[in-house]
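Supplementary Methods S3. Input chains for the assembly prediction are listed below.
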Amino acid sequence: MANGIMYVDNIRVEFDDSYKSVLEVCAKAGVEVPNFCFHSDLSVYGACRMCMVEDDKGNIEAACQMAPKDGLKIRTNTSRLLRYRRTIMELILAAHCRDCTTCEKNRACRLQDMAMRFGIHDLRFADTRDLPPVDHSSKAITVDMSKCILCGDCVRVCEEMQGMSILKFIGRGPDLRIAATGDAQLSETHCVSCGQCSAVCTTGAITVKNEIGLAWKALHDPTKRVVFQIAPAVRVALGEAYRLPPGENVLDQLVTALKIMGADEVYDTIFGADLTVREEGAEFLERLENGGVLPLMTSCCPAWVRYVEQERPEFLKNLSSALSPMQMFATVLKDHYQAKDAEDGRTTYHIAIMPCTAKKMEAARPEFRRFGTPNVDLVLTTQEVIKMIKESGIHFTQLEKESPDLPYGMGSGAAEIFGSTGGVAEAVVRFCMPEKDKNTLRMIANSGLRGNDPIRFATFRVGERDVRVAVVNGLANAKTLLDQIAAKEAEVDIVEVMSCRGGCVSGAGQPYSLMPDKLKRAEGLYEIDRSAMFKRAERNPVLNVMYAEDLNDRHHELLHHSYAGAHEE
Amino acid sequence: MAKSYLLKGDVNRPGRISVEKGMTLRQIVDELGGGMANGKAFKAMQIGGPSGGMVTAEQLDLPLDAKALAPWGCRRGDGVITVLDEDRCIVVATRGFLHATQTDFCGKCVSCREGTKRMSELMNKLVGFKADEADVGMMLELGEVVQMTAFCALGKGSGSTLRVAAEAFADDFQNHIDGECPLCAKETRPAIEPGDGVPYDKKQVRIDPDKCKGCSRCSRSCHAEAISGVLKSPYVIDQSKCVKCYTCIDLCAFGAIEEVTING
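Predicted structure tokens for the full assembly:
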């Protein structure tokens, strides 16, 4: 319902309560007023001063900070405004590293994009800054503040969305800069590697750690058997780099592309996810039956695990000991390939393609090593794989489709939805519910587990008792839920936590996008689930054979790690 | 209601003064300041520090009032009034106020942070006789951009002093462009430093709860959204958010907001 009419450059636009600023009304009118520091998923900051607009009285104000008002008439492109914007743009560029061709964010940079719109070719000011060294210390992200334009998006995402406040503004006036708490290297802070700062960074100042070189090296090494696993969230986002709609499943094209680039075997992380569901589900039922520690909290998300370890160790005993799907997959793979490696004299090099920067940190954790190497040798993000495909010159959209290899290339629909908030919980509930009919599946789907609210609750009848499930996404919201649990305001039995808003589909390793597109990716995963051959982890035929062979005896050794136990030692 | 200012510069009696409403600038110099020092003639007066403005002898009969002096960009600002005599080079004096922006301003918004930095750099060039007409033009252009687009009143005011100085004392500017300034050549006194000598982090803007009526005017005008409260009860300033732009001090009808020096 419209509650007002505005005129933007003489275009009549209706607006309602969902429009918080004139900037958004301008967008509705078809005018994208230039800006850097406005991010629809975050609070309004008003620092870049690019979105200045002029009203009919000649007043100039920032559109992002201006509330829409009925009858307001604004112009977005008067001669004054254009002149001011050009000068501001020039000032920003003059205090920015302009080595675009060698920048990680080349052609994916909002500043570059804006510079192109303005067509500024001569700068009247020299760069007079003292440049801080590049921070390579984090396993997940690289920080080069010579490229920072101080828009503050990273500071706000770290504080508002993740509740971490690791990145902060330091100094004043011309010395203002952004640095990690205490001006330390990122690895020395409590940063959980969620990478959301890199996902919102306007420039190439904060980027995903680029490890493409290692991948090529392994692919070109004849002594290595390079085996890939691909996470669910990757397949519904990678196509965006080729102008395909978010949510479109490009798994089969990705398999073909990887084979062209030299992959020996390409598998699917959903196989690992099915393992996680079975192990975690069984762990939950066991805790429920024997009065173990509840609520059981998922441990699939490495940023969340790191958060609990550092900030809330009192909840370590709640964390499921079941490994994340990536680690489950890798452990089983490396275990099975010991014999194969010995046979043909090659070593298996395992690369996981993930939507996530924190997975790089998880892969490097010392407990996830066997036989002298990490279980996952390398984690590549969706972004990095896109770059490799582009470097190879592959026309991605014209590729033939190829399914992942067998036996580890198959999994359930329940595993596919792991990439969305609520997906892990839904998969575990499907496993735990004694009723296995279609209507039960529908009931679970409509129980409230799905959705985009920060914290959601649902209750299920499992045998003799009610099982209360909570789903939370965004670390700041997880903090809220933990406080509610500690205060006994929320009484739950299972808690699913994903550190990124929207779940893994919104991971920082994914192509740049905003919330509406991230939700479409999640929708894409649910679509895959709807047409999946089987919907429950316990129906996975390959796994059933493996459990029947020897996994039943060895699953504790291979597939579990007690975070609480590790901290007691 | 009388307002407290710090009077400094080339007057006989510099120091804390209390200015009654309606008092003219001439009265401030002659009566409160005891007239110009050493019998020299008045040249200019800077009101409000780095975010304030400058007036010449022509405006001396105007009252010290934000509205009356708005065309010259004068505001209460840091509460300092600086009087300059005929032998002061206005270019050097103006540089002082521009330099103060580099230590006193927060740096949050691009136009102010980068704009005042560049203005300050160019002003150094001009004082050192290395600038040309284009540089002065660029400074003025930057001043306009910052005035129109900055986030808060500090940035918006940062170009006013320069604007008036360049217009009213074009000769001083021309001398510096030409490479020879007679005023600088014979000047032996140190330049007047802006401000009251208290470092930025030792100042706080506070609301006196006894005087505050809870009208919310300060809160509504605060760009930094640092002031909160409930109508008809005293408001408070969140010091972590306050950028010390003094807008609220200028606006408060009850004189309830003041800048205080903190210890430690």
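Residues 47 and 164 of chain B are 12 Å apart (CA to CA). The longest strand of chain B covers residues 3-9.
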